[in-house]
Write a structure and sequence with these properties.
heterodimer; A: alpha/beta; Alpha-Beta Plaits; 11 helices; 14 strands; B: 2 domains; four-stranded mixed β-sheet; 7% strand
Chain lengths: 301, 368
């Protein structure tokens, strides 16, 4: 186990950020913390990176305790905070150089590690970091977090505010880093990114809802799920919410994801009910649940 | 060591690229010293006064001529009667009126006594006092001339000599004060701002999760400002020597050493502020209100400490600037060395160590 978390709790004054959290991350694993804003992801990251101390519980990183042996952890991990935290008035190259220096290394020594990422921002190496686009900022931040060849990488919402193309590139890089043997703990509010992790923990209101592989989580979805579409989205949702057999209704792109209280729902009756309310072009078809569906279902309980 | 150099390099980039801090660092000291040196002065020069001469004889004419001849006064109005006095004061341009009684010359020779009244506009009390003193001294001189050769029994003749600043130049008093204020401002405010900026921009989070130790971060932060403050101190001393002709009677090297000590005291105060303040705004407010104001008001820079109420005198003792001003005045004007300034130096040193101890204790190794 590279990271262990046992019964960690943390409160700020009256607000409880984490309630009795436990999980473990294997060496070389790409582990995702999936949850909405305010779920407690950043607090957990800060505890693991020794920036905060937990009220209760024990956590270790690479075998070092986060409270008593914090110096050893600070020497060996890479951390990329959720907010862009590089020097905006320093250029791309100066930032990277600075972080290499304070970790007692040089860009050249670990260039192969950051090469894949850094080549993309290298054309702008004389530009101030504050003037980079969102995606490039994140690539620079990742380069800076990587430059000292950390054993464990903590990435707090690295793709928030980044365009879809850059997001995909970013995840490709994480995969490559994982192949080099790095343990990566990443958090994201985007459910579609969850499928790219080896294992994920769904987290909400400071509690872990479930920990498993993304595949297993979707397979555990308890009910048949339906894509429903009609000519009027708003009316469709409100109608379904009023339907007596409805278990859950969530808008999902151009569809509505629907589950029924019964195990085998009556599609024709539902279609009739919707027609009766004035909806046309109704399609109802079975679909596979996504992580988002699982999350919504788990969060309902 | 490499880490330290890397950190210092980064700090210089910050300073060099932020036009605002560059201005505070180098524009302010020069502007302040020139401002205090030239514009703000306690001396009186070319003050407009009016004369009400009801006697209009040889003696009064002579006195008036003497006053007009001095560079301190301009006689801009000659009044005809007493009712005009209030009118000219109300207009505000005239700061003093000199009124001679009727038959002034005759009274002196016949009665051995003549009266002259000095009326001053005391809306500015210091100024009124100074004007009154200046005129009195001109009148005294006149009296000596009249008495010249005559035998006057029983008289006290005060012989005052202004030691260390014979011409009573106010710039002699401002240079040490301004130097103190500027070093305090640059050192304390700039360091506290630069440390809180790391907190505000989230970079402190990354610095904490790095092998850098707290003392390395602080040393890296402080070093560039020691360097820049020493340059500032040198610029101020050179300006005062060559532009304002303030003498440096003591050892320049000793002055430099004491300045470095005071710079370090101020830097440590800056670090202390940054451990309390979470944002650059707060750091700036605390530096300005908590350090600058007491430094200007309670250090004896402008207002003499001996005439303050006792509680304020007590407070002035904990203000580092008070001791540094004594040191600078001692070295520059009196030309004394460590032997006479040991107490002040030790107090500054003790303050530095105490503040440093508190800062190290309060420095946060985590985010909370």
């Amino acid at each position: 186990m590279e990271i262990t978390v046992a019964n960690i709790s943390k409160s700020y004054n009256t607000v409880t950020a984490l309630k009795d959290i436990s999980f473990g991350v294997e060496t070389g694993e790409l582990f995702g913390l999936i949850g909405p804003d305010g779920a407690g992801k950043t607090t957990l990251f800060r505890i693991l990176t020794t920036l905060l101390t937990p009220d209760n519980g024990v956590a270790t990183v690479s075998g070092f305790d986060v409270v008593t042996n914090y110096k050893a952890i600070r020497n060996s991990v890479g951390y990329m905070p959720g907010r862009f935290s590089l020097y905006q008035d320093l250029t791309v190259e100066e930032n990277l150089n600075f972080f290499a220096t304070i970790f007692g290394t040089t860009i050249d020594a670990n260039y192969d590690l950051v090469k894949d990422i850094y080549v993309q921002i290298e054309p702008f190496k004389n530009r101030r970091a504050g003037k980079l686009s969102g995606g490039m900022k994140q690539k620079l931040a990742l380069s800076c977090a990587l430059i000292h060849k950390p054993k464990v990488l903590f990435l707090d919402e690295p793709t928030t505010g980044v365009d879809p193309v850059s997001r995909k590139e970013f995840w490709d890089m994480l995969k490559r880093l994982q192949n080099k043997g790095m343990t990566i703990l990443v958090s994201t509010p985007y459910m579609d990114e969850a499928a790219l992790c080896d294992r994920i923990a769904l987290i909400q209101d400071g509690r872990i809802l479930e920990i498993n592989t993304p595949k297993a989580i979707t397979e555990h979805f308890p009910k048949p799920l339906y894509n429903i579409r009609a000519n009027n989205m708003y009316l469709l949702i409100t109608s379904l919410q009023k339907y007596q057999h409805t278990h859950s209704v969530f808008p999902f792109g151009e569809y509505v994801h629907y589950t029924d209280k019964r195990n085998t729902p009556d599609k024709t009756a539902l279609s009739q009910y919707l027609k009766h309310l004035g909806l046309t072009e109704i399609t109802i078809e079975k679909t596979k649940p996504t992580i988002e569906d699982s999350f919504m279902e788990l969060a309902k309980k | 060591m490499k880490k330290f150099i890397g950190f210092v390099k980064k700090e210089f980039f910050h300073i060099y690229r932020d036009k605002r801090s560059l201005f505070i660092l180098f524009g302010m000291p020069i502007a302040q010293i020139l401002l205090f040196g030239f514009a703000i002065t306690n001396e009186i020069n070319h003050v407009d006064i009016a004369i009400l001469d009801q006697s209009n004889d040889v003696t009064t004419k002579e006195i008036i001529n003497n006053i007009a001849a001095s560079k301190h006064f301009n006689i801009v109005d000659v009044l005809q009667d007493e009712t005009a006095i209030e009118t000219v004061f109300k207009k505000g341009k005239i700061k003093a009126v000199l009124q001679f009684e009727n038959m002034f010359a005759k009274n002196i020779t016949k009665e051995a006594q003549a009266n002259v009244q000095i009326l001053t506009d005391a809306t500015d009390p210091n100024m009124a006092n100074t004007i009154s003193n200046y005129i009195t001294s001109i009148l005294k001189k006149q009296q000596q001339d009249i008495n010249n050769g005559a035998f006057t029994p029983y008289q006290i003749i005060p012989q005052s000599r202004m030691v260390y600043n014979a011409e009573l130049k106010s710039v002699y008093m401002f240079v040490p004060g301004v130097m103190t204020v500027i070093l305090m401002l640059v050192s304390a405010m700039m360091t506290s701002i630069s440390i809180t900026r790391e907190k505000e921009q989230g970079t402190m989070e990354i610095l904490l999760v790095s092998p850098l130790k707290p003392y390395q971060v602080i040393a890296g932060k402080v070093f560039p400002y020691i360097f820049l403050s020493v340059i500032n101190a040198m610029a101020i001393v050179l300006l005062s020597i060559f532009v304002f002709k303030v003498p440096v009677n003591g050892s320049l090297f000793f002055l430099a050493l004491e300045s470095v000590l005071f710079i370090i005291t101020s830097l440590v105060l800056g670090i202390l502020i940054s451990t309390i303040a979470a944002t650059q705004q707060t750091a700036m407010m605390i530096s300005l209100m908590g350090l600058m104001l007491p430094t200007i008001l309670l250090s004896g820079f402008i207002f003499p400490i001996s005439s303050m109420p006792l509680p304020l005198q007590a407070i002035s003792n904990i203000i580092p600037a008070k001791w540094f001003i004594v040191i600078v005045k001692g070295i520059m004007l009196k030309g004394i060395g460590l032997g006479f300034l040991l107490k002040e130096t030790l107090i500054l040193l003790a303050m530095t160590l105490i503040y440093l101890g508190i800062s190290v204790k309060k420095y946060k190794i985590r985010l909370e």
